[in-house]
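Customer ticket, subject: "Can you confirm the structure for Rab-GAP TBC domain-containing protein?"

Message body: Hello, I'm evaluating your service for our small team and ran a test protein. I'd like someone to confirm that this is what the system normally returns, since I don't have a reference to compare against.
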Amino acid sequence: MDSRWRLDMNALRSRRAQERAELINKYEQGCRGAALLVPEEEDDEGGCLVPDRLGFLHEQKLPQDSTPGAKRKQEVGRIQKWIKMIKNHSKYRGSDKFQRRIYKGIPAQVRGKVWAVMLEVDKRKAQNPGKYAEMKELARLGATHFHHIDSAIAWTFRNHLMFRERYGMNQQALFHILMAYSVYNPEVGYSQGLSHVVALFLMYMPEEDAFWALVQLMESRKHAMHGFYKPNTPKLERFQQHLGLIVHRVLPSLEKHLEKEGVCLEDSTTHWYIQCFLDGVPFPLALRIWDIYILEGEHVLPAMAYTALKIHNSESSGPTEARVLGTEELGVPCLSLVSRA
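Agent reply: Thanks for trying us out. I re-ran your input and got the following:
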């Protein structure tokens, strides 16, 4: 019996190793790997799509930028101030001026650099030279979450120019980071929501910087997102219970409505925490939320969730599940913490 069990396990390991190698080969081939897609994986969206200023694709042509020249000049001045602040980040980081400017909004041109400064990406990378390459190689040889990661990538920001091409350059980078992190942090491995977080970082950072930004976000005391993704998600459960208490005490009418409709608040707001509002709000607003979340840390998440629920509850006399819980996009700046972008 023992020898037969060992043979079965060896066969299983061999089959998984072959499947992993075949999947890695698809990503290494890049767009040529798309020829290996099974029919249901193919991207069958046709027609001419137009990108907006953030890279998201739309079926209709968008209005042309009508920003006055004076405002554009002001924006250039803001960028120059940010560049100066980044170069002297040891002087400005943690200052009132630094915080005020983040609340006003980080220009897209420097957002990645500012996030990296706040997350101390360069420091962490310097402390671990060659570590990311090592993790990528270990993932090639023994990662176990490759199917889950590939499935997640197939649905991550596919309406964005960067991630539209199956097995394209940016999907490759996303695959590399998620595979490497699954080996770097085996307790988490891969968990739902991580692909969107990493994809967001890749929009503004090089591949290795995005990896270390994820590590810092998961491990730093200020953010400690690790608890949202580890087995049994203890932190997620704690935050959801906290939100439930807030709703019970401050929004009793909303609580009664949810009970009447049979809607579970905890189940319906999970994505708010594991993706930090990347799903359910317009992307420009999500960026502003992330600016403040990276600055302030985890304690702003309950305030964000409460404010979103409060606004939807006050704006709708008969709120549906989609409107109340953000499963349709919030069309207003729903957070008092965030000024209009």
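A couple of notes from the result: Residues 2-29 form the longest helix (28 residues). The chain is about 60% helix and 0% strand. Feel free to reply with more questions.
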